[in-house]
From TrEMBL:
GO terms for molecular function: phosphatidylcholine phospholipase C activity. It comes from Salvia divinorum. Its EC number is 3.1.4.3. Residues 1-22 form the signal peptide. This is Non-specific phospholipase C6. PANTHER family: NON-SPECIFIC PHOSPHOLIPASE C4-RELATED (PTHR31956), NON-SPECIFIC PHOSPHOLIPASE C6 (PTHR31956:SF2). Keywords: Hydrolase, Signal. GO terms for biological process: phosphate-containing compound metabolic process. InterPro entries: Alkaline_phosphatase_core_sf, Phosphoesterase. The lineage of its organism: Eukaryota, Viridiplantae, Streptophyta, Embryophyta, Tracheophyta. Belongs to the bacterial phospholipase C family.
Amino acid sequence: MRKSIFPIFLVLLSAIFSHSLQQNQPIKTVVVLMLENRSFDHMLGWMKQSINPSIDGVTGRECNAVTANSTDIICFSDDAEFVDPDPGHSFEDVVQQVFGSASIPSMSGFAEQASTMADNLSQTVMRGFRPENVPIYAELVREFAVFDRWFSSIPGPTQPNRLFAYSATSHGSTSHVKRQLATGYPQQTIFESLREDGLDFGVYFQNIPTTLFYRNLRKLKYASKFHDYDFRFKKDARAGKLPNLCVIEPRYFDIIGYPANDDHPSHDVANGQKLVKEIYETLRGSPQWNQTLFVITYDEHGGFYDHVQTPFIDIPNPDGNTGPAPYFFKFDRLGVRVPTIMVSPWINKGTVISKPKGPANSSEFEHSSIPATLRKIFNLSSHFLTHRDAWAGTFEQVFSEQASPRTDCPEVLPDVSPSKRIQTDENRGLSEFQSEVVQLAAVLNGDHFLSSIPDDLGKKMSVKEAHGYVRGAVSRFLRASREATKLGADESTIVDMRSSLTTRSSSRHG
């Protein structure tokens, strides 16, 4: 009899201990904002000079040749401003930027790759912002923590890297695969892991939640997790009702009176600064402040120079998938370093975090560190999502060094002046990322079933048209999903909207 009782006792003891760990853990709410397409050196590199010499930033002696074996050299400068056109950041572009003519990541090909795209773009990608031109980041780096070895998960564009942030894999994608974007990526995410343990999450979006690229999140049971940022975020924060994980998605379209704030070139970084300021001040005034961690990061480097060598040794493939021809990428290298700042009253002033202490000798901070750390601080019962989040460095130590929360955190951050010098052009064509967002909206709207709608739907739209289409599609999809739930549909169902591109008022769900 004792033999049968003893294992049960151990299980109960383990459960009590795990619950105790979660109760003692100070962070109950993690807020994640992922912005677009800027490197660490481009946004934060010059803060080494004037804010914190411990930061692995720039000195101005970091240079690239404009062409291989050329004497035409461009060194990194501090005069970054409004960027247009958008630098290259496809998988192929990043190979050239990172390797140059070397066999290992030499970070020597940024200027050369940019020179193949547009005049003067080489100078653009070799420029960084002065701290006073990104005043919100300057203040947060002084007051809280900056990570100067946080890398994008793959050396490639936006969407694969965004997928890693909540699922620790891109399911074999190194670029934007239209068919996969439409059907939705099938992998498990940290959102399911939280739900399995009775924890909550919310996605606060401004144009469209790109988290809907995960197919599972399109199910009826998650429709109530998506909220309009403008209507709900401040309200939930004031009421102390922010969920355990809050994902904030910025505005991806630049519209007069409703400017893009995702930092994607050609958008004004001042609007990204204003968004971070607004989120911070909202959290600072919330009754949940003393239990909150705010994570600010970027999906990838956007083609801008960074001097820190991208890790390429002992990086684990997440799930056995291999990228497409001609590279057949094995997911065994990380991407370029990106800006990452963390904010909490549990973080000491002026903290700089570099390489993690495990779990492996080769471990680094990258986007898979987000689900890896969420699993640890919330003591989730599920297994790791992939081999990558099992390997990634975790950052719970950044808020575990204090016995109590700080009381001296600023309540208000500095004002931000616009840096953009030209008028917003609502009629310009879409970037590749904006086109993918339109394709996602077409799926949600049912328009991908129309034979008259070509694959390049987004290429025929202006930014203004795309903004209206996307907002309408998301609203209809979520409304139909909630209605289906009220009617008693199975919670694992995904609503199939009927085509409504020309007859939007007649949208129905099946």
